[in-house]
Amino acid sequence: MRAPAPEYDGVLLIDKPTDHTSHDVVARLRGILKMKRIGHAGTLDPMATGLLVMLVGKATKLSQYLMSVEKEYTGTIKLGETTNTQDAEGEVLTTQPVPALTEEDVRKALAGFLGDQYQIPPMFSAIKIKGQPLYKSARAGEEVEREPRFIRVISYEVTRWESPEIDFRVLCTKGTYVRTLAHDLGQRLGCGAHLKALRRIASGSLNVSRAVTLEQVQKMTPSEIETVLVPGYEAAPSIAIG
């Protein structure tokens, strides 16, 4: 008689590869763990890599709490080109020369985004308006009026400046579109810009340094999987789950 598949509970930190949607990761984990009760605490665009907080078993009850925490990213912005998706996956819309900027100029420009503000979500996003995801309207060539969303940019730093590229690190509240920050930076600098690369390195107290890949999980025994699951009380110490 075949032994029943183990039932896991906890938070599994996955280092998401590029070209995977968050839904793809959920589907693959359901196949690996032989469980349906798996979700995530915040999506990443297919192009992005890094920390995807996966909720397994009873830990799915932590979704709202873990989605609300601050997020930290590193990435690269390319100046001089705008795209219809605001990132490297889209079609190039405009090309302009990049001004002769110094690193101090770039630092000051990024500093201008610090603090509380309202951000208009991009058309290529999963936000639904009248029941329709915005990206479907965008693919149909339609422009839909979007309500600005309140966000806070806590820190926004240059880690490398080599024209036309800016490497950065940003800490921001949930719901912040980093590709929109890149696009808006290009508008402020008068040359346009898009997000070339993005990696999430932290979500609240959870860091990508503790994450494993899908391939690693695939090769683990049930006891090894148990060792990499973060207990719910550690991931969300103020929330009790049962």
Automatic annotation (TrEMBL):
It comes from Rariglobus hedericola. It catalyses: uridine(55) in tRNA = pseudouridine(55) in tRNA. Residues 30-178 form the Pseudouridine synthase II N-terminal domain. GO terms for biological process: mRNA pseudouridine synthesis; tRNA pseudouridine synthesis. This is tRNA pseudouridine synthase B. Pfam families: TruB_C_2, TruB_N. Belongs to the pseudouridine synthase TruB family. Type 1 subfamily. One of its GO terms (molecular function) is RNA binding. Its EC number is 5.4.99.25. The gene is truB. The active site is at residue 45. It is an enzyme of class 5 (isomerase). Responsible for synthesis of pseudouridine from uracil-55 in the psi GC loop of transfer RNAs.
